[in-house]
Amino acid sequence: MDExxxxxxxxxxxxxxxxxxxxxxxxxxxxxxxxKRIRRLEKDGxxxxxxxxxxxxxxxxxxxxFVSVETTDHSADWLGKFAALVEQTPEIVDAxxxxxxxxxLLHVVVSDISAYDAFYRRMIAAVPLRxxxxxxxxxxxxxxxxxx
Length: 148
Prior knowledge:
Layout: H1 3-14, H2 20-26, H3 31-43, E1 63-70, H4 76-88, E2 92-97, E3 104-110, H5 113-126, E4 131-136
Antiparallel strand pairs: 1-3, 1-4, 2-3
Helix pairs in contact: 2-3
């Protein structure tokens, strides 16, 4: 991957709706070699998807909750159940397996506290957990593409 690839990635990460002609002009290529680079980056898995970033407040989902999950069961069976729960729960928009004092960190997006409570009750009924800690976001200060 060279600097031209990185420039293409910076542009796409900032605005995936840019046309091929706009991207090519910005990186000083003609459209055909620019397209070949983009296709290669997609084929290599560097570009995983091109998506629109939606405004959660405008969609009636203004509450972000960061949920720390601790478990005493680290078996393959438990992990399979937990992974299925995460995959099947639309309120969970990001999930991370962690090192340190918590096992998993979930980013949950809901319409209000009652919706979070309903999510919480479904989660604790689905898999055995040792501890669940919820942190409610007051304001998002930064959301940015990867630092290329």
